[in-house]
Amino acid sequence: MFDESINQEIQFFQRKYPDKKINFEIITTEDLKKDSSIFISELRDELISELEHTEDTASLESKLDLSMFDDEEFRSLDEIMISDDFQQKLKAQKLQVDSLYNNDYIEAFQEDNDQSSLAALVEANRRLVLKIAQRYKGQLTNSIDMDDLEQFGMLGLMKAAEKFDLSKGFAFSTYATLWIRQSISRGIMDTSLTVRLPVHLIDKINKLTRLESIMLNEKLEVNLPLLTAEMNISIEQYHDLVALRNTYLSTISLDMPIGIDRDTTIGDMLPDNEYDIEKVIEHDFLRSDLEKLLDYLNEKERKIIDLRFGLKDGETKTLEEIGQMFGVTRERIRQIEAKAIRNLKKRANRELISDYYYTNGKDSIDDGKYEGNS
User: Fold this and answer.
1) Which NCBIfam families match (predicted)?
2) Which pLDDT score is estimated for 141?
């Protein structure tokens, strides 16, 4: 990694100054070790020499602290520089990228498809992308966030690197701004809506909304003839655009997080109308109370009532079907059923089951008149 960085730096200077001969000298840790040892030795000798040629040696010794040269850490400076920890930190250093070198990055990328130069270009212009993305914060939805806007902008930046013409002499940042803005706008249009609309329709709806806002700020109502003339559309097309805006641009995803902790979605708060828990509980209580009432019937009457009303399995039987099961006529089954119902009505405690079958002031069970299948 370190050698690669050095090679990149050499290539960069060679591209920047093609007509100049540049000599590079790579300093290794061995060179640093040698230089540091020489420097320390010379410094010590110089100080000792000064001390020897000074008459007031006691005064000079008090000012000069030569014990530093005996310090184990100071003497092991060369060991520190060749240590694994120092080498790892040295290799971790990266070349500093800067937007001042945009043209050099682009040239290397366009000519040699140098991906490292493209990466350097993207990194050097990250602040430009973030600055432009901030302008679109008002268009954030539950489907996209700031990270998405940044990624859209980066795609536009890389597209600009492919298309930029160095020979024109323009600043890359000015050219890239247009691509970044377009990429972010398209990204929002393609991903922010639950139902995707064509880009040209989104543009028209946005223009329509902007003109309406301007008119409402200046006046109390929208001047429809003036607005349609400004957009060069008919009245019918205007109403179509408004319908599309109200239908597709106002939708909310059921997965949108809500609440302080953002751990609940709108879908979690909607009731399930297909499964009414109150009715299920009420039905269970009714079944329990009916079981108590059926204990007042004999075995045959209870069996017929069970089959007739489907109390066991939810499937009702006709008088004819029950008659065949008991080997009697349907008329006989009807008589037994009517008698059983009369007995139940006599035994029924109104306080016990009235809540279940008393509706709108009328009993749901007519006196002996059951409108069932016959």
Assistant:
1) sigma70-ECF (TIGR02937)
2) 64
Buried b (16+ CB within 10 A) or exposed e, 19-50: eeeeeeeeeeeeeebeeeeeebeeeeeeeeee
CA-based nearest residue to 141, from 202, 210, 185, 191: 191
DSSP 8-state secondary structure symbol assigned to residue 275: S
3-state SS of 318-330 is: CHHHHHHHHCCCH
Q: How far apart are CA 368 and CA 365, in angstroms?
A: 8
Element containing residue 265 per DSSP (H, E): strand 264-265
| CB-CB neighbours of 322 under 10 Å | 22
Cα 155 from Cα 85, distance rounded (Å) = 38
pTM: 0.42
Residue 264: beta bridge partners?
258
- Nearest Cα residue to 128 out of 154, 158, 105, 108: 154
Of 44, 43, 65, 63, residue with least CA distance to 54: 63
Q: Say if strands 362-363 and 358-359 run parallel, antiparallel, or are unpaired.
A: antiparallel
